[in-house]
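ARCHIVE CARD
CATEGORY: sequence design from structure
SOURCE FIELD: tokenized fold
FIELD CONTENT:
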């Protein structure tokens, strides 16, 4: 028996920390909670696309661990970024061969930032891979992704938890933030200062959207992992899974969203 509830899940950006999203998704689906719509920014857009394609969370983790993501990047001869992301599209095409939002098993929306207009752009139809690349295009590190006449960078710059595409179209919204920031007693260098400032800005636009979520899942301790620390992939997955199983135990009302529930609207 399937639930008639429309359940939306918004997945934040956060670099490699986004692997924790896969653990969250595994815990939710094992508990019978299946999203009917997904939105994501940056790492959340990548995890969301693979999940909406039909890959199981464990399978996505295996793909990430076995794939040398950075070999698909090449130096950019440009004043706007150090690396180009164009060749990363070849990696996505291995697993998203159709390159079409309409071919996904679960509807997906990804957020990107229009750097010239200073606006968030949402993509949910047409070509799939370039919007995902745009959503995860870290400004200053990568050349912007051009779609049409728009120059696009990481969606987290303006919206690191894209609940808006789910608001009003889903009965329940689950927000998942993987970009938690720990307290820091010593900022020892300029790199740490800039990185911390960027994460603080992104977290501000996450927490400003928290009230739009019926459930908000934020696994603790993720701030202790580097945003590019791919060697910690399995640990990040485990943090997301373990915390979400504990979250479900402590918030049993979320099980009302499970597939054996026949409600069709909020109580």
């Amino acid at each position: 028996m399937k639930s008639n509830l429309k359940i939306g899940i918004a997945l934040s950006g956060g670099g490699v920390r986004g692997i924790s999203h896969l653990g969250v998704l595994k815990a939710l689906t094992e508990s019978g909670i299946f999203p009917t719509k997904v939105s994501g920014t940056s790492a959340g857009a990548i995890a969301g696309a693979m999940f909406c394609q039909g890959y199981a969370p464990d399978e996505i983790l295996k793909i990430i661990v076995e794939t040398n993501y950075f070999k698909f990047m090449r130096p950019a001869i440009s004043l706007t970024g150090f690396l180009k992301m164009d060749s990363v599209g070849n990696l996505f095409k291995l697993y998203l061969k159709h390159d079409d939002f309409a071919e996904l098993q679960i509807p997906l929306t990804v957020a990107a930032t229009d750097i010239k207009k200073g606006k968030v752009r949402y993509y949910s139809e047409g070509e799939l891979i370039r919007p995902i690349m745009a959503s995860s295009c870290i400004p200053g590190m990568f050349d912007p992704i051009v779609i049409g006449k728009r120059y696009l960078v990481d969606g987290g710059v303006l919206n690191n938890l894209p609940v808006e595409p789910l608001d009003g179209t889903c009965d329940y919204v689950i927000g998942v933030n993987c970009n938690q920031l720990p307290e820091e007693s010593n900022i020892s260098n300029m790199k740490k200062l800039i990185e911390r400032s960027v994460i603080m800005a992104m977290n501000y636009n996450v927490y400003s959207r928290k009230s739009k979520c019926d459930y908000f899942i934020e696994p603790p301790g993720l701030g202790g992992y580097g945003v590019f620390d791919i060697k910690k992939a399995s640990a990040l997955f485990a943090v997301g899974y373990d915390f979400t199983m504990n979250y479900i135990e402590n918030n049993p009302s979320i099980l009302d969203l499970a597939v054996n529930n026949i409600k069709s609207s909020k109580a």
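CARD ANNOTATION: The domain at 7-255 is CATH 3.40.1090.10 (Cytosolic phospholipase A2 catalytic domain). Residues 50 and 60 are 7 Å apart (CA to CA).
SHELF: design records, drawer C
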